Amino acid sequence: MATENTTTAPATPAPAAGTSGAKMIMTMGGLGLVCGVLIVAAFQLTLPRIEKNKAAALEKAIFEVIPGATTKTVLSEKDGRLVPASDVPGGMHYYAGYDDQHHLVGVAVEASGQGFADLLKVLYGYSPDDGAVVGMKVLESHETPGLGSKIESDPSFRANFEALAVRVDDAGTGIRNPVTLAKHGEKTQAWEIEAITGATISSRAVTDILHSSTAHTVPVIMSNLQTLQSSQPEGGQ
Amino acid sequence: MNTASPLQIFIDACLINNFVLSLFLGICPFLGVSNKTDTAVRMGVAVTFVMLVSSLCAFGIHKALLIINAPYLHLISYIVVIASAVQLVEMFIKKFSPALFRALGIFLPLITTNCAVLGVALFQTSREYSFVQALFFALGAGAGFTLALLLMSGIRERLELADVSSVVKGAALTLMIAGVLSLAFMGFAGMGR
Amino acid sequence: MSEHASPASEPTSMDAFLKGLWKENPVFVMLLGMCPVLAVTNSVVNGIAMGLASAFVLVMSSMIVSLVRKLIPNEIRIAAFILIIATFVTVVDYLIQAISLDIYKALGAFIALIVVNCNILGRAEAFASKNPVGLSIADAAGVGFGFTIACLALGSVREVLGNGTFAGIRVLGPSFEPWTIMALPGGAFFVLGGWLLLFAWMRERKAARA
Predict the structure, then answer these.
(1) Each residue of C170-190: pLDDT tens digit?
(2) What is the distance between the alpha carbons of residues B157 and B177, in angstroms, rounded to a whole number?
């Protein structure tokens, strides 16, 4: 046995090639470890800042689409009832906005759909008192700059969303008048959206998104008014 | 969850949001290997193939990373997978079709640093495509890339014969043509609806 | 991408830095890393952010590559470089999110795509893997700033003509009708083509005079 061991010992060239492989794996492994630590460290260090930024951006958007709101609370839908968002993981959020006297002024909801080029994501505010959409902000858009992108900047288009009538129907399960698109300068009804000339498709995309979203959310909001009014806004900012 | 139909995704990736002409992905090979039609087609096929493979791998990785809840590892694992996918594809082709290997040979290593391939992996993740959707997305992106290369090489082959001022010749002219092509592709923009 | 030949005379850090800025400008001369330059330069701020993010990754990865260049076996060097670059890109991704969400949204997927910017792998392979740390950093910083300048050159033209503003400040009067095309993908190609044309013309004139 002992002799056998000694005879195999000189055969080092083969293991030498093996150590080179082992060295490669060790180098890559070591490098991977260091890189992993760096990434996790960066992730952990920046996480609080990022969360804070995101929360601030969301809050700013909410207060923008619900004029007069200064505090908010986040609710989620569960079997047609609104409950605190923490109870429903991953659900769609309803952001209820309150004024200084803790009165409910509106509810903001996110909605999305196919735009002209890509996905279009908006946030709109609904005021139960007015029975109307009172604000709309484009969160994400890849519409053509200078044409479709006017949905974010065109003043007469923006004016559509200062008071867009969306009322719940008598059965309480749908909306009375569908949100529809009217040609530029031909808006006659309070539930019509006046299109931007040269950006009809983008205007229609916004209309469709608002229609399909409000058809679902407005009945939910109206049937849960009590919950919304009595919910406590999150303390301070 | 994204509900677009596979065909819609294919057309979107190929024409409406063409990877090269409207998303600016894969510009390097677009400028580099678009002077001859046949090399352009070969490059396009090679890229499409790698896109398909890496898209499938990226789908699996994304699911795995979701399970272990480590979103920060996405980029690093994608790029490692693409690099190894290119290697694997290279070895595979070398073994089973030496003729094809000779035709594609020099392009394969280049694909590792082709942002279009990584773009496919990143976009399909951020748009939450399902398996079939991701498949069609990769195919569409590859087809769009090949189309852009093919169009460009056709134009450049004709330009060889034209009398062009020496100042304009080269990258500047290629970019100007790309601009015109990109404008033309904007005409597809409304097709998504 | 590895055209760089080690100069015969001992190069100083200053030379390495200046070379990347102009004579071997990554975008205008080497025509490398065009994707982000074209894609996110629709405004000055986006252009600068992209340029600086890429420069950061470039400098950091060149530094690390140069530090560990003797430890990495030759066969796996490319894989190792990519790993190092991807790490710093991920770090930059989180840093930008922490600094400004607006910039993060504007740059989108192109932050992650810094990883396949051929300049970075090119500098790691051609320079940092063969040169000491100080020189590698200087070289990377030069290329990084050269890249940033290119982004800025594109971004400023596109923003001024496409929107009438420079970094958000209005520079052209209200009667100015914005050139929508400048904000579109086609505009990016035209502007970069225009810059290249200008430089080609300047070179030609210089050559004619000499």
Answers:
(1) 887 777 877 878 878 888 999
(2) 13
Rounded (10°) CA dihedral B12, B18, B19, B23: -100
User: Contact A116/B193, CB-based, under 8 Å?
Assistant: yes
The reply to whether residue C193 touches residue B118, judged by beta carbons under 8 angstroms, is no
* Å between C101 CA and nearest CA of chain A: 7
Convert A194-224 to b/e letters by CB count within 10 Å (16 or more is b): bbbeebbbbbbbbbbbbbebbbbbbbbbbeb
Is A140 at the interface with chain C, CB within 8 A?
A: yes
Question: Which pLDDT score is estimated for C146?
Answer: 92
In angstroms and rounded to an integer, the radius of gyration of the C-alpha atoms of chain A is 28
Q: Closest Cα to residue C152, out of C61, C27, C68, C32?
A: C27
Whether this prediction's pTM lies above 0.90 is answered by no
Q: How far apart are CA B41 and CA B145, in angstroms?
A: 10
Contact C101 A20 (CB under 8 A): no
| Residue of C69, C76, C158, C163 for testing the chain A interface, max A β-carbons within 10 Å | C76
Closest residue in C to A40 (Cα) is C91
The 3-state DSSP class for residue A137 equals strand
What angle, rounded to 10 degrees, do the helices at C44-67 and C77-99 form?
140
Q: What percent of chain B has pLDDT over 90?
A: 17
Residue type at C64? I
C50, C36 Cβ separation under 8 angstroms:
yes
Contacts of A76 (CB under 8 A, 6+ apart): A82, A83, A84, A85, A87, A88, A91, A92, A93, A94
Single out the residue of A81, B176, A199 nearest to residue C198, CA to CA.
Answer: B176
| Nearest-by-Cβ selection for C190 from B23, B25, B176 | B176
Reported as a single tens digit per residue, the pLDDT across A32-77 is: 888 889 898 999 899 999 989 988 988 888 888 888 888 888 888 8
H or E stretch covering C145: helix C133-163
How many contacts does A have with C, using Cβ atoms within 8 A? 64
pLDDT of residue A12: 36
Closest partner residue to B76 (CB to CB) among A35, A114, A201 is: A35
The closest CB to that of A144, out of B4, B189, B193, belongs to B189
Nearest to C87 among A20, A35, A46 (CB): A35
- Inter-chain residue contact C87 with A54, CB threshold 8 Å: no
Alpha carbons A154 and B174: distance in angstroms, whole number: 36
**Percentage helix, strand, coil for chain B under 3-state DSSP, each rounded to 5:** 80, 0, 20
pLDDT digits (tens, 9 = 90+) for B123-133: 888 888 889 99
pLDDT digits over C23-55, tens only? Answer: 788 888 877 888 888 888 888 888 999 999 999
Chain A contacts of C176, Cβ < 8 Å? none
C109 interfacial to chain A (CB closer than 8 Å): no
